[in-house]
Amino acid sequence: MKWIHVFGIVVLTALVSTGVTYLVMEKNYENEASKVSETELNSDLKEDEKEKFVSIVDTSGRGWEDSTYSKRIDEWESGDEPFVGNLVEEVIQEMAHQKIIAETKEGSIMITPERIDILIQMVEENKDKYERQAQYDKYARHEMYLDILKRWKKGDFSTVDDDHNILMFIQGGKLPEGLATGIASEEQEKHYIFQVFAKEVDEVFGSTEKQN
């Protein structure tokens, strides 16, 4: 009788042990399956994000770097001939192309704090030249140039799309496809800088957040 009792205990213990082992294995399997599922989900989300990325580079052949004006800005010194007529408008527009979304972009100049400083100096030293051409405007154009450039100097590009479009309207003769329809994301801008100016940057200059 004792032998049967011991045998029953052994069998019962084996069954319980097997059951516990099975439950542990099943739980581990569920955890692994959950991890795999989560990994696949994250992978799918990343793929979706890649698909959503839209380049802001104009590949039609007109949107590449305007090295002629880039060089003229970089080499300009006080007393040199300033950009007059519609040249300041054109230069600021081409700089804005780095940060805007538009169907077409005619020429691009990379934005740097140094170039902004040079343009500010150029306009401030030659106010009378811009005032004479602005006799039919509501206010002297040099004031508008300085308003835009000084905001940019502070890193405020929250209205860069409007800045670009105002200058387009003033210039006239521009294709409507060139109007800015929005402001690029930082990722889009980094891609633009790399593709158009062949420069890789860790962060972009300025912010699209409203500055105080």
3D architecture notes:
The chain has helices at 2-52, 67-75, 87-96, 113-125, 127-132, 141-153, 160-171, 186-197; strands at 100-102, 180-183. With 212 residues, the chain is mainly alpha-helical. A two-stranded antiparallel sheet has the order 1-2. The mean pLDDT is 83.
Structural class: mainly alpha
Q: H/E series, N to C?
A: HHHEHHHHEH
Count of helices?
Answer: 8
Mean pLDDT: 83
Can you give the helix content as a percent range? 55-70%
Q: Which parts are unreliable, with pLDDT below 50 for 5 consecutive residues or more?
A: none
Number of strands: 2
What gap, in angstroms, lies between the N and C termini? 92 Å
Principal-axis shape:
elongated
Report strand %: under 5%
Strand order of the largest sheet: 1-2
Major sheet details: 2 strands, antiparallel
